[in-house]
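To assess whether the prediction recovers the assembly geometry, we first specified each molecular entity separately, as shown.
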Amino acid sequence: MRARVLIRPKAGILDPQGVAVERALPALGFAGVANVHVGRLVELDIEDSAQLESMCEKLLANPLVEDYEVELLQGSG
Amino acid sequence: MPEPATLPTLEDALALGLRKTEYELVCEKQGGPPNLLELAMYSLLWSEHCAYKHSKKLLRTLPTEGPHVVMGPGENAGAVDVGGGMVCAFKVESHNHPSAVEPFQGAATGVGGILRDIFAIGARPIAVLDSLRFGEPTGARARYLLEGAVSGIAHYGNSIGVPTIGGEVYFEAPYEQNCLVNAMALGLARREQLVRSAAAGPGNLLVLFGASTGRDGIGGASVLASAELGGEGEQDKRPTVQVGDPFEEKKLLECSLELLEHGLIVSLQDLGAAGLTSSASEMASKGEVGIDIDVARVPLREPGMEPFEVMVSESQERMLCVVEPASLAAVLALCEKWEVNGAAIGTVTDSGQMRVLSGGELLGSMPVRALVDDCPLYDLEPQKPAQPIYEPPEASLPAGASAAETLLGLLASPNIASRRPLFEHYDPIVQSRTVRRPEQADAAVLALPDGSALAVSIDGNGRRVAADPYRGTIAGVLECAANLACVGAEPLGTTNNLNFGNPEKPHIAWQLSESVRGLGDACRALQAPIVGGNVSLYNEGATSGPIYPTPVIGMVGRLPDARLAAGLGFARSGDEIALVGAFAPSLAASELAKLRGEALPDGLPEIDIATVRAAQLAVRDAVRSGELASAHDIAEGGLAVALAECCLAGGLGAEIILGEERAEADRESQLFGEGSGGFVVSGESRALQRLGESVAVRRLGVVGAQALRIGMGAEADDEAIEVSLAELAGAHAALAELFS
Amino acid sequence: MKFGVLQFPGSCDEVDALSAARRVGDAELIWHGERDLGGAEAIIVPGGFSYGDYLRAGAIARFSPAMESVIEFAGNGGLVLGICNGFQVLCEAHLLPGALLPNTNRHFTFRQLELEVLYSGGPFTGACALGERLSIPAKHAWGRYYADPETLAAMDRGGQLVLRYAPGENFNGSLHDIAGVCNERGNVFGLMPHPEHAVDELIGGSADGLKIFESMRMSVEGARA
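The predicted structure of the complete assembly is given in tokenized form:
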């Protein structure tokens, strides 16, 4: 099974990359942009999707400062 | 072998960049038309990049021998003896075109490539320096390229644990469409540890180790790919941007050095431009042997790669070595320890042929000599241009600026302003050798185990070379030697990267040949032979014409006592300040002339190399004796800027009286004029007196207070520049906003 | 006394740490694949990019065999010093509270910094005076120390905030200018600046970093006596 893990900075934790993008967009003429956050995307094929939660807690994300979201995709990649 | 019907044609050869006459010569050497694989390999090895066909004849005129030279041009890097049984390997190389496409990866892989050159001869890389050229930083593209290149160099150097200890950057309009990214690396080895790249011993095995091979940088040869595969969409598979992986290279570096430490390899070579094709052929050529390569044994990153793709791939972080069959198991075990791929992909033969096989099937066979040594060399047709080639720069300093305003304008100008916002991205201290960091001294200084030290400098002012290719190049070499003298070091050897436009044009050919003549004369006079280098030609923007001719000079020297390396900053209040050397400043092609929008002059004032060298020797000896508190050579922006830099680096002001009444124009050139052979030094009065016994020394003033005051006349406040340290610092920090 | 310095394939400052430690005692490298700490009486997890650090600084290194032994060693009260990437590894291994995040200036940055000693009672700063200033360089891209407010308050009370950046020196955006912290028990210490690069006036421009290694020696030899 194909799975996708989205990892982003926890709300309230300063995200300098997000801030930089948020500052850069208006400079390029894109108005009305707010709350930009830059995170990471991990895609993987996995046999037992029940392991995903523990993978995220132990390695893929740092739960102290990051939120993650697991998405299961149909079929295998 | 493919059927004759599928053989590529002359058109294919032309599309690959070969000339008609070259293709005909290939056919002659092959005894018939080459097949696709063979043509791809010839086209790469007979390219300007690999064969130096427009520069080789000139390069042969350069001095390459000297008492310190251990390894000269022709190996992966040059090396000089630094005493105590140690040698220093070094080389500068360009990655201009990849950096113009994608500056971060272009610069990163440039650093990766030059580091591999260093450990390919068995030396542990100990330092990186960089030399960068961009358009004016007012332009968004120049800033994008600069930020990308600096971040890429930092990413690679910092991650692999090699300090970036120095460098230089110039901003000039002719680099707008064609930036330059040159990187220099130094390595250290015990003399007996050095290894050469010549393959030897028929029956020995060829082991490819490091990263797996993908379709990276197939570049020009992709013409063949599309011809072969037919589909437009296939182009998408062929990334032109190569991605650097410093972690992979770190493992490769440690693995290579450990293989050498255990005496497991016969010869070693890195993979760079033209990948396996170039590395294997050159190893065979140097050893006068043949090589068989089985492409089916090459560890691949992508499925379905064509044999020619495997042979020309420029995937990064790979090395090739020759090992005796009995050592193979131990070699592969070390590869496993360092978690890098290792595979025996071929054999050294006595056939004199470069043969490519897949399993048992022979795919191509070429005489090694034809591939590597028989590419035709071309004579240049130099002609001095009748008309100026370059547009005058845009004026950026208001007319009628006072001397103080001019000084601040120069300090804030992109070519002079502090490089701190750039070099703060680099780790300059890892490996615990760095005695002088950027902006602490004129040259970077690295301690050696026996208490002595290496000094390194890199320089090359393209604008001055554009004004006068011969004298401008001499000035560049002298500048490097002056930087070394300021820390008390004598030159041991030189490396260079010749960045020029299209040499087939007579005026570029003239720039190139005059510049190489200057390089040779200066290096001979300084006894600093060329031990290696690189040439990058065809640096021309699509619409903007050629870059300034830019020979980048890297020089390595040695000083007996690391502790005595002088800093550039004034060190003690009350010290006397003096101008050392027969300094004859001129505003021709100076930074001030640029800020005023003046066109380049036709020629620079004559340089008396012997006099300049004598001044350098005197300063060097004074620094070595420990008598001087500071030493700084006068470069861009002239004496006034040099004084300001000494004040800023030391956090101390200075009271200067130039003391001679002169005409307005003379006054300006005295303050801001440039030229070779002038130094600003400080120290106790009797130290300067002693220095005056061997060289012209003119007392300028005294260190002290928190402002730079320059009195122009005999009276202290006649026509004075008076600028506080805070104002100087503010102007000097002008590049800070580049990386916000 | 004997220091053990961990070596990951992507370590950069392990040899620097080794020679710094050798100024006050014996020291040996410990390969990341080894479980045997070779009789080391104090462990240094050095700077660098342990396994390339492509996922998150230090995230993978904590699972190495050597680190598993280090976790056990720390659990038994052994001294563990984490420098820069080593600090990140110790946080990822939960030997130290909090986490290190990308610098607010978004760039790898090198600077010679002034640090202030906030706590001089423990085994890592015993040779320093309270409030003493140390000149030590820092160089990193992920050095912004973060812990939640409750944790920070408890650390403050427990003397776990050992070093802070002097006013104006905090380029990475660490909370409360925190530069170095220890665990509750006081035997594990991590800091972003590099004391091993400030052990020789000639090379580092300062020898203040030597005090950290000297403190560790005093502590180990004191416990032995």
